[in-house]
Amino acid sequence: MSIQEQYRKKAAELLSSGEVKLVIGYGSGSTPDRRRALFARTADDAALFHVDAACDANLSGYLVNEGLLSDKKKIGIFLKPEGIRSVNILAAESQLDPDQIVILGFTEENGTVSGLQGTQASDFTSLMTALKENRTTSEKEQALVDKIEAMTPQERFAFWQAEFEKCIKCYACRQVCPMCYCKRCIVDNNQPQWVHTSSHTLGNFEWNLVRAFHLSGRCVECGGCDRACPVNIPLRLINRRMANEVLDAFDHFSGMNQNQEPVLASFKKDDPETFIL
Amino acid sequence: MTKILLRDKLDDCLTRWHAAGFDVVGPVRKNNISQYATVKKAGELDLGIILPDRTLKDLFFPQTEPMFSYRISKQKIDTEEYLPPGRQRIIFGARACDASAMAIDDPLFGWDYQDTYWFKRRNETVIVTIACTAADEFCMCTSLKLAPDSTQGSDILLRPLGDNRGWQVEELTDRGREAFSRIEALLEESPAQTAALADVPIKFDLDLCREWLQNPENFESHFWKEISMRCIGCGTCTFLCPTCHCFDFQDEGDTYTGIRRKNWDSCSFALFTMHTSGRNPRSTQSARWRQRIMHKFNYFPGKFNLNSCSGCGRCTRECPVDMGIIETLQEITKLSQ
Amino acid sequence: MSKPFEPKIVAFVCTYCTYAGADLAGTSRLKYPPNIRMVRLPCTGRISPMFILKALQKGADGVLVSGCHPGDCHFTHGNYHARRRWTVFRALLNFTGIPLERIRFSWISAAEGVKFAELISSLTEDIRKLGPFEQYKAMIHETEAPVSL
Amino acid sequence: MTDNTQNGRQNIYKPAIMKIVAKRDEAPGVKTLRLEFQNPADHEQFKQRYRTGMFGLYGIYGEGESTFCVASPETRNEYIECTFRQSGRVTAALASAEIGDLVTYRGPYGNRFPIEDFYGKNLLFIAGGIALPPTRSVIWSCLDQRDKFGKITIVYGARTVADLVYKHELEEWQNRSDIELVLTVDPGGESPDWQHRIGFVPSILEQAAPSAENCIAVLCGPPIMIKFTLISLGKLGFNEENVYTTLENRMKCGVGKCGRCNVGSVYICKEGPVFTAAEVSRMPAGDL
């Protein structure tokens, strides 16, 4: 039985047994190569789920939709390792109770998907450790990061200026991100207005810096923002660079487990401080 | 016998238009995105793009624009208006859906009160549309009762020739005729075979949808919740929509000097309608999606007798969660059959 | 002839140490350049990266953030949190091309009037050499310009 | 240029400048400003166009604009009075502005109360809390031509005694024999010396039981009060066509372009803010 069929069956069982009230997974999209979120409430709906290489979205963001988990009932959700990391972070930041989440985990490599053992976020600890040890999400991506780092500051500034100039402040990057759950984003606060809401280059620059900063040590590199961006800003490169930073400086790999302390809300007395005069 | 504009004469056309004081704008691919941008040479144009990522709206109603600056002193406030620069523009190679969209927004921006920023640019721009010979799976102009060669909003319509050597010229307005009189000498009179237009299948039944939307019973239908569950509330569909016209004012500066700007805003954002008191008339994403669909296909046509959609399909093409007008109207069509 | 470039530097400082250090520099009659604009805050832990962005937005050529030495925080560990925050924010600024010579961090205690005066002098000199932050200023200038479209 | 459709302005988004000539505290957080036009041409436009019921966008450069009604009546158009509760960025700036400071004003926008249609009729005004200002504009418009109307009844309620606005005018109305004024505060909101009624507006209205015969009701208040008061008015025999109310939504442009005040097919800024209850009942309730 293919992974897809196994998981359809599993989802159907979860729903028909009443263990979960809802399963969030992937259904077919508007074109053959697109998958879109599918919310299954009955065992019949579960037959529409897809599990394949085209399932790229990190669906965990839907878990924090207002009121979805407030009835204490369980929800099943299809997640890739990044998604499981997001759930861990959301749990660590008290946004959800991980016991309410039944995970249908899968992973994709070179176009083939395979299932992951476990149903609770805590079942994947060894997977997380392995991910941290072999942090090789994409060498192509790291190469691009390295290329930018090799530039002079002026060149880097010009590079990002050209990218951010395209931004239209649609906030798709924020809205699609499971970590951006704030009811009112800093950019929407107007007393005081810290950063410009206008989408001129300066405002875009500020917005993207603030976004990247707020995701530092929290981003799980699912790539959702990058795929969502309608003007193709390579947001994953910034997120990648920041993930490298927290790993190198504080040995922090986001979303390891549900008790992990947020990197910017904790400290060690011997944290590096070579740059401080 | 019809007028023909040959592709290899395009550079000369641009030279003549530039000499006559026109800026020339057209589809350009740059920095991983395609959009309508000012060009100096015909070679910069990419006329093979089915539809630029960004819309024609950008040229009339930019994402952010300064309206005026202020300087406050004890006894007076000085302001300086920033009106669009008075430059004649020719948009060469617009798509019919984009051009139509401009005509759709005209009544809105001119409804009793004239939006200076919109109309100044509208009056200074000639839109030369090239009929589409190719479409992708998201194109839906025909579903909106428009077509790859719609003339709505265009000043000139160019029909690609079958042999790809150029275009057959259809002059639609005086403004278009005036602009093309500058290149009259470069046009040829010859019989021409135009290429077949793009085949854009009809995706939904607009009349049925309108009827369904007009029925007050359907306003509270569970359908809206189901269809918008995936919606993440970003502004992609509205900002990449050529007809979406909602905006915001923002003051930037300090207590004494600064600038008031007009920025795009989106009905998808929760804050769009939020009162200062915290009350929000459209407090859920489903209410906001319903508003978007209702506004485009019920309220707007009720007021201005035009659908606030020209069928470009960008909302669906670019949606991060694969939603969009096509799916919603297809579902409504199914519901009303 | 145009006036020589005088950098504008915004300093966000903790009131318990660096601000007192600056006081000490003043009462000790130590000389340091007048290019610094100090903003006094209760703790370095209060200094949000937003402040740095705001300073740049308002045309600063350099920013200094300064507080108590580790272990000396009036609120026991505000500066430890700040240290992590700056490590991360600094990396972000660096990656987006904001020269790190313009964004400086220091620990200056209430007793270090001399260190304060020397730091301000060397910082001002460094930024004077770098010149105005033209790349950022060009972006600011663009926001103040009339429409071109 | 004096193009009437453009409010006399070439750029419809550019406000007129007004000076604060008086400032009054009405209730905790609620202030009234009296404003005078700095430019005579702006004033002339205002006088020509302003009719009771219209609103304006008041602002401070650097903070933005905020929408409130014109609280002064069309019969007193030498100035504009606006009353607002300090709650956001713009109102905070307006509240801290001093007499002599300059503010911005755009308007008057929107539709009006058809006061001529009220001639010869009895009038019932019902307002709750900070919603007295729009009602007050109609009240004074009618009181300034008192002989054209029949009996005038005003029912006004607020959460607490302190929250009642225009206290000096309430006193004046109280002492007039040609007005019946019914004041009430919510239970628990009364002060030891409170002499008037205690209870929510809808039930007090039912107790006062004004006759619906030949009567026009003007109703302004928070949405929840409107909802229940409409039920009470129905019980008293009022026809929805004879009940007027004002709707408020967030607005930016005020001229039917920016899209945010749109409810159903109506742009509140252009086709409102004054509606009959019958018109309101035809709007989609879910978006109100």
TrEMBL record, chain C:
Q: Where is the F420-non-reducing hydrogenase iron-sulfur subunit D domain positioned along the sequence?
A: 9-131
Q: Which InterPro entries match?
A: MvhD/FlpD (IPR003813)
Q: Which GO terms describe its molecular function?
A: iron-sulfur cluster binding; metal ion binding; oxidoreductase activity
Q: Keywords on this record?
A: Iron, Iron-sulfur, Metal-binding, Oxidoreductase
Superkingdom of source: Bacteria
Protein name per the record: Heterodisulfide reductase subunit MvhD
Q: Which organism is it from?
A: Chlorobium limicola
**Lineage summary:** Bacteria, Pseudomonadati, Chlorobiota, Chlorobiia, Chlorobiales
